[in-house]
Amino acid sequence: METGLNSKDAYAAIKIGEFRSFIYARFLFSIAIQMQSVVIGWQIYSLTHDALSLGMMGLTEAVPFLMVALFAGHLADTKSRKTIIVYSAAVYIICISLLLLFTTLLNKVLLLYGVMPLYVVIFFTGLSRGFMSPAQTALFAQLIPRELLGNASTWNSAAWQIAAVAGPAIGGLVCGFLGFGPAYSIVVVFLVFGMIALFFVKNRPAPQWKRTESLWHSLTAGIRYVFNNQIILSAISLDMFAVFFGGAVTVLPIFADRVLNIGAEGLGILRSAPAIGAILMSILQAYYPQFKNAGRNLLICVAGFGVATILFAVSTGFVLSFAMLLIGGMFDNVSVVIRATIIQLFTPDEMRGRVSAVNGIFIGSSNELGSFESGVAAKLLGLVPSVVFGGSMTLFVVGAVYKFAPKLRTLKL
Fold it and tell me: 1.20.1250.20, 3.40.50.300, 3.10.450.50, 3.40.50.360: which CATH number matches 13-204+217-409?
């Protein structure tokens, strides 16, 4: 792909029109998903006041994601990636519309069945995200020349992180001042505008490759490719375990209620802190890329994320808690950009959907399974000890990867 753009230009990727449209669409989808996550988390907590119920929310979304991941990756390498995203987004719109109905016109359903209808809808949002994720990652690479993949990953991450700031903040504020119904209505609006932005991206054909293997062989090809590549495997394993053990997002409603006493409005601000840190780091990375000693920087930043998590757990003040989440977000963003660039550079185009699906199983599901782990750990160990344990496990994982993955440790991009 010839663009005539300077790969050292900090704004090179976003000067490509279709990539901008893709980023707009992904931004709007992401802000809707982040907002919905805060709103439904607060709704379930307000109905149950139970940490395990919040953990079950993550598990309910992770199970369908895992169920369809490999097949979704196969589809992303054999069908139009844009079409898959459009259909997945349409299903997500239907799901949020159901949440809106359960909260307003059909609120008697929640009175009769408790939070179970909410879990059913979450299950289908998990299915939708399972198909959308590998298609988005694979389409991303078709819009950008290889020499701009690092720069594009930085801006892609920045867009997602801005959405992760705005989504929780809007969700918490609207939920706190106007209620759940208006919050879900705004989520639907963001999703619809995301669909509109996506229509400005041309429909690209699936990559041309010889499809002589069986369906099962194709479904598992991504797994074999990842496990035969030490750099990719160690990079996504590092992120997976860091997210699984180190994330404190799931139990933030409990911290907001019992430790900091800041309510739904404060919860939205607290949820946005990691993304604010990530945005600041994205801007720095656009001008000062962290690829020269990528492996070393990846390990340092994941360790920093673990330390920030531990300090957040023992904090009893809003300012310190916000600061630790912000710093954790800064470290995490370096990890996200480096890992995304590694996967794009080391994966051939005809394998991107399937490798992305495996990455989704490692990373995407670890968010939801990590939510379940956080809920269970908080139930068994107590709120603060559970988060300290998670941060400590993150540091242990960094040490293990440093020892057993020398290719990643010495990687330079």
Answer: 1.20.1250.20
